[in-house]
Amino acid sequence: MKESIILSVNAGSSSVKVSVYSVAELGKSPPIQIAEAQVSGLTAPPASLKYVRSSSEVIIKDKAVDEKVSDQRSAFSLLLSTLVEDNSLPQVKSKSDISIICHRIVHGGDYSEPQLISAETYHHLEALNDLAPLHNANSLGIVQLCIEKLPEAKNVACFDSQFHSSIPEHIRTYPIDREIAKSNKLRKYGFHGISYSFITQEVAKVLGKRVEETNLIALHLGSGASACAIKGGKSWDTSMGLTPLAGLPGATRSGSVDPSLVFHYASDVGKLSPNSTKDLHISRAEEILNKESGWKSLTGTTDFGKIVSGAFGSDGNGGGGDEVMKLAFDLFVDRICGFIGTYYVSLRGQVDALVFAGGIGEKSFELRKAVVEQVGCLGFEIDQEKNNQKVKEVVEDLSKDESSTKKKVFVCQTDEQFEMARCCAENEEFW
Predict the structure, then answer these.
(1) Using CA atoms, how far apart are residues 50 and 40, in angstroms rounded to an integer?
(2) 291 lies in a domain?
(3) Burial of 186 (0-12, 13-18, 19+ CB in 10 A)
(4) pTM to 2 decimals?
(5) Where does this protein hold substrate (predicted)?
(6) Which of 33, 46, 179, 415 measures 20 to 30 Å from 378, CA to CA?
(7) Number of domains in the chain
């Protein structure tokens, strides 16, 4: 039987990543990654291209790309041609070799599972663009391009919100007029669900438990950050809400603030932003809270690594550190710990592990140390020697060996592209 090729496409606000998987037999064998390519820096040109064959053979590293590659669609076209033109990648000799393209779509509305993209599905998702202004429109632009340029492939939408469809009604409901909420679909949806699905599956294996018996507090910490309470392998609560803006602060997002704050911030917040288009309507309020807030507004940088090094100074203990950087670091730790405490109580203390993931969760041992020390009263303890090591495995245990509690602390190298490919490979409907 001929192997099937699955493309996982992850379009961010300033980047596009494509992972290529080979599946020996759909439904019976797991996806094996054979290549990965990424264009980053679309909002801070010149953009750059990185191409890795297999999982570690770097073919192109941070190569500046043509200035015509300025948006997600043109970036995807470049990535596709990079794959097809690679003679050392025989599995993808032409576009027709690609069987399934799975797309990360941030907001899926009421969809509780991945969807084969049809005209009806596409238009339904298009109507949700305003709820995830940094992501959905970019992803749908690539979907449209794939339908045009790769007509033989099946396109599947995998939603960041689908994992959270299990959130109970009393948690997902906002205390507003019920009829208005229902007609306008105003409720908590939650995001980073593809990542949380991967984390749940992989951590359950390490714990030696069935997924449906696993309770976690998981943190996806990157330029966009969120927390999730996972009960019996399903989402019980999460920090993001109707849109990805709620909850934890991020690189340019405010996270949760007093709803009336924005009206005291500027006088034109109710007007449409000059950056709105015919397809995407963004108010000045949304623009301020999504793009002009977060660490960037506090420190002038979106690089959390710079915030950490600035906060802790030359001696690594805060001596000579920058006060503004320390403020941003402490603020982030405080907000994270607030959600951990809330979720610990919501799960009634039945928590198997606290899990750090995402770029910051994986790389910042300083942040992990600060968070675990603050929530140590809940029974979490971290081994500093383990914590200071570079993360190598998919899931690594950072807990103290002699800990008197059974509560674990893990770091997980989450993989949204793999999770999407795995979902497609296991679902007969998409073959």
Answers:
(1) 8
(2) yes
(3) middle
(4) 0.92
(5) 104
(6) 415
(7) 2
Helices 72-84, 136-149: inter-axial angle, 10-degree rounding: 40
User: Is residue 223 marked as binding?
Assistant: yes
H helix and E strand count, the chain: 15, 14
224 in the same domain as 152: no
In a domain, 417, yes or no: no
Q: Are residues 274 and 404 in the same domain?
A: yes
CATH code, domain with 84: 3.30.420.40
Q: Are residues 232 and 139 in the same domain?
A: no
- The Cβ of residue 174 has, within 10 Å, a number of other Cβ atoms equal to 12
Same domain, 237 and 306: yes
For tokens 């002699």, the residue is: 402
Cβ neighbours of residue 157 under 8 Å, at least 6 residues apart? Answer: 102, 103, 105, 108, 111, 114, 115, 117, 121, 125, 143
Which pLDDT does position 167 carry in this prediction? 98
389 belongs to a structural domain: yes
Residue 120 annotated as binding site: no
Q: For position 279, what pLDDT does the model report?
A: 61
372 & 289 share domain: yes
Residue 429 is labelled as binding a ligand: no
Q: What's phi and psi for 102, nearest 5 deg?
A: -105, 130
pLDDT reported for residue 327:
97
Tell me the DSSP string of 358-389: HHHHHH-HHHHHHHHHHTGGGT--B-HHHHTS
pLDDT at 276: 63
Instruction: Write out the catalytic residue numbers.
Output: 160
Cα–Cα distance between 202 and 225 in angstroms, integer? 20
Q: What are the percentages of helix, strand and coil residues in the chain, rounded to 5?
A: 40, 20, 40
Sign of CA dihedral 108, 198, 253, 291: negative
**Per-residue model confidence as pLDDT tens digits over 325-350:** 999 999 999 999 999 999 999 999 99
| Residue 250 is assigned to a ligand binding site | no
Q: Which residues span the domain enclosing 14?
A: 4-159
Q: What is the spatial distance between Cα 37 and Cα 155, in angstroms, rounded to a whole number?
A: 19
Q: Is the confidence at residue 409, as pLDDT, over 80?
A: yes
How crowded is the C-beta side of 105, counted as CA atoms within 13 Å?
Answer: 34
* Residues contacting 165, CB < 8 A, separation 6+: 110, 111, 112, 235
Asked whether residue 134 falls in the same domain as residue 271, the answer is no
* Whether the Cβ atoms of residue 306 and residue 276 lie closer than 8 Å to each other: no
Buried b / exposed e across 48-69, counting CB within 10 Å, b at 16+?
A: bbbbbbeeeeebbeeeebeeeb
Cβ pair 187, 172 in contact under 8 A = yes
